[in-house]
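[Q] Does anyone have a clean structure-token version of this?
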Amino acid sequence: MSDGAAHPQIIQRSATLERAKTAPGAFYLLAVMGVALTLWTPGFFTPANLTNVLLQVAVLTIVALGMTLVILTEGIDLSLGPVLGLCGVAASLLVVAGHPLPVAIGAALAIGLCFGLLNGALVAVAGMPPFIVTLGTFGIAQSAATVLTRGDSVVRLPGYYRWFNDGVFLGIPVPLWATATVFALTWLLLYRTKFGRYVFAIGSNRQALKLSGTRVPVYHIAVYVYAGALAAIASFIMTARMNAAHPTIGVGLEFDAIAAVILGGTRFEKGHGGIAGTIVGALAVGVLRNGLNLIGVGTEWQVAIVGLVIITAVGVDSLRGQP
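[A] Here you go.
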């Protein structure tokens, strides 16, 4: 083979190696877990179980996409899990009381948007730390859901409610359609609009954005509002999957969402990251949870294991020189 023919192949191979070196830890984690679980647990690599993983990961992915935008602005939203639970409770109470589904959908979206607006205003306008703000709204949403239900589950949902989880359109389950739609919308917003450019700028060089005359608080608030809206959308899938709404149904989901975002390569500083890695991170968390269930690890240990995996993945990325 001549040098002229070999040269492009060498360049292509070098580029592939370079991309592999800069890939976030979630890619490697997912590959290792996939091989290990396939060898260790015969029931893992089956169409039924893989489909189950994708369906389980739908809610996490939708919430994690909103969390990605928040973290890109050097923020965090600890309230997304309880807000999801409150949205599910409110919508379920309405349909059980006989109200039309559009009214329930509108109420859930309004709750998600209002919490996002409150979080965003306190962070972007009042200048309060995102951790403190969203920890406070975590408690507010959790308490509101508990008061509405008196601590009980909302049951006897109409049969049509199951469609949000069990429905199929063109041979594809509805939760996967919802995830793909939210991903496409988020991708367009983040990479094809002025809003997306400002999201990255808020995290990487907020002062320069302010000096350019941009109304930074408006876009900063919009990030939290969008995350709240996605939590509301995800609440319908989770409630339909459980066939009941409970005030604590979403608590802990914010932890897995943060894990998915961080494993996917998004960092809390300098607006570094993106949503492609978040998808892989969500799959990694979902596969990890599924694998732990298959091998019989109790839920009380799973949070600790996920936390250990996050620390390990971020540590490996740091040793590899990732930002």
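[Q] Thanks! Anything notable?
[A] The chain has a mean pLDDT of 89.
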